[in-house]
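To whoever is covering the structure queue this week,

Two jobs came back overnight. Logging them here so there's a record in the thread.

Job A:
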Amino acid sequence: MLSWIRKRFAPVFYVQIWERKLKVTEISTKKVYEDLPLMAIQTLKSGEKKIVAIGKDANSSTSADTIKVNPFSHPRVLFSDFYVGEKILLHAFSTFAEHKFLRVTPKTIIHPMEKTEGGLTMIEVRAFRELALGAGSIESKVYLGKPLSVAQFNFDLIQDIDGINDIGVSPKTKDDVGFVTVLLVVLIFTGVFYFGT
């Protein structure tokens, strides 16, 4: 029940990913986060890695012990570094929080904008879906096609790219719903008959 309430009132984010740009739109407010999908990581003397900057700020980082990672830059695929991609998306999501100490748990549409010729493999679809869930989404879908209209955006009507939901189970069909309804009616009548005698 609590999960249903959280999903019902969760903000909806439309995430568009290019190799050199990340754009996140919060549908209800039309607010937009747009930046380079880049992270600067510094290796400390202890060997520990520390995030120094994200986005354009990471691009201007010039320290010798800092590396720059773009998780959406690879010769063959759009998504190549899960850890960095998750941190960058989490950072983007946090910019929409009115109170910075609260974590935003949105419903998310991930829309790869390039390197989609021939469609995405199931591995890529799962990686994009897990990227959103790892960044705090309560539900995620992967979408391919023309850019979606923010003015007419409806999360529930957008078809997930492979027709499965975020836990890998096919959505209930009308036949499934009918079967469950009949089963409930039978159980209720059986209970009334059993306890009524």
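Job B:
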Amino acid sequence: MPTSVRLSRPADVIRALRPGMTVFVPGMSGESLAFYEALRAQPGHAERLTFIGVHFPGISRTDYLGLHPTVRLRAYFMSSAVRAGISEGRVDLMPLDYPGIVRDLEQNLRIDAAIAQVSPPDAEGHCSLGVTQDFLPSIWQNARIRVAHVNPRLPRTSGSFQLRIEDCQLAFECDSEIPCVESEIPDAATLEHARLVADLISDGATLQFGVGRLQTAILMSLVSRRNLRVYSGMISPAILHLLDRGAIQPDCPVECGVALGDAKFYARLDGDSRFHFRPVRETHDIRRIAAIPNFCAVNSALEVDLLGQVNVDSMNGRLVAGVGGLPAFSCAARLSPGGRSIIVLPATANDGRTSRIVCKLQESSFTALPRYEADYVVTEHGVARLRELSIHDRASALISIAAPRFRASLESAWDEIARRL
């Protein structure tokens, strides 16, 4: 490996950490599991460290708080470990969306050490961040100690940001697993639901989407479209359906911040010029996105109320995640010429016992999108086009896409709300 930087071992790197340091650890598929495992093997080196990272529940499976009872964490998403840490007074949970997280990292924090998982350097000493750019570029140059985990498994990808191995104070090479997320296979009902969303997306649109079974089904339903573009915070293996069927505009790269999938998907990305990775300051820049015509943001939710307010991260009064990039993409899509913000969700939860179209979000629920951001809402029962509707027409449209068994009770509840408006 062409470098004048002396290669260390993971154990040597953690010995460079000192109590009181603040350490940035990337999340998603960019997380260095080798660094985490080295700390877990010698947890005394985690004493009085503060870790910062954007770790999404259900994707990130590491527990930095569990390394040592004196560890602190600055977190941006709720998880079971974060909830326990809050009760112990060891976690600062920041209620920020993705652009807000970038500002927090760039303006409010001193980073003593930053861990970057990178591909092996090329002949000029440049390393790729592989399948995750997201937040690391926001803190890299200001980090006092920059550490590179050179992972031979990490695919080399093109992107807005790359680092030079010579700019690192420490580096170690370790063949290590890349965090994976297995794809969920959509069933027939999910595919039928997805077709309602696909009908709102025309040839030539630019897509943003998330991960999960329903999002996979939506992409599968778009294979007959042509000249689509992708500008998204995340991509999953389902994007290959569009590429391999010719739905993506030729010679137009898939632009994204993070790729989440299995090892086979990551191998496909290695050296593939059809993919271009960008940091969050670019992927979630409202001004940049709003200038893209026909931008379609497709995002999932847990509940939508009859005013059009959207809950994406709380259940029964308990915060379960965070708003992530939803507010930025929704706002930008509504500003885009011909753009659409599409919220998609099943009509019911708990095996059909609970309606996800609700009269009004409970006081204990958290609102990710306010009523004035409402645009399109899609359940398996239809599409509600809300942007230009009055509050009464909006309520009627949402009731019409609720599960039939709940419509009468929603109408009665809305009558009561309307009398008190």
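Note for Job B: Residues 181 and 318 are 25 Å apart (CA to CA).

Please reply-all if you pick these up so we don't duplicate work.
Q.
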